[in-house]
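User: I'm putting together notes for a lab meeting next week and I want to include a structural view of one of the chains we've been expressing. I don't have a solved structure, so I'd like a prediction I can at least talk through. The sequence is below, exactly as it appears in our construct file.
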Amino acid sequence: MTLQRFFYAPFAIFFFSLLFCNCKRNDNRNYPEISKDTLVFSFVSVGCNREDKKDINPSNPSTANTEQLMRTFADVAALNPVPEFFFFTGDMVFGYAKDDTAKLDTEMMAWRKIYESSPLAKTSIRLVAMPGNHEMLYSKKTGGGSVLAEKAWLRVMTPYIAGNNGPKPGGNDSVNSDESRLTYSFDYKGNHLIVLNTDEVGLETEVNNS
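Assistant: Thanks for the context. Below is the predicted structure for the 210-residue chain, given as structure tokens.
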């Protein structure tokens, strides 16, 4: 190591330490709650517990990997500190219901039954469910968002939808259906939380905010 590098290394460490301390002081001054080093709130985010098509069996109407799902519910219920929210980010069932949503209803209701009989449902942790492509699209091959699938989601999962301020049909993004309870936001303890549906009708794999 050259003499120049010998002096440079501790100087760099000192500089970044000073920068960190200064940032921390600014944070403490602007956000006094940070200086207390306490937990404001916590949440859990999990998604995709569905079975593969080849594994679907009439004995399991939920089409979920039930063993994994029940283990997840039990693990989250046992967390300490207790999280405020459990965000489930879609693909809870196999879905791809096309225009016949009776099967989609059955799958999602069976998923709900697993959740509602789990230890997690007996805690204060709030489940916020979000749809995925398996709940919203016609099929894997042809894609295509389904208004009927959206209605099925709202019909079955309403207890686990946390807002209704999302985009209506039309608007700046030319939304084709009522997304007000599929893409929305809500406030919690000074934080703004956003739930996004990325598979709306005619605008699949896009996120709109009108």
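A couple of points you could mention at the meeting. Residues 1-24 have pLDDT under 50 and may be disordered. The beta strands are 43-46, 85-88, 126-129, 137-139, 143-145, 184-188, 191-195, 199-200, 203-204.

User: Perfect, that's what I needed.
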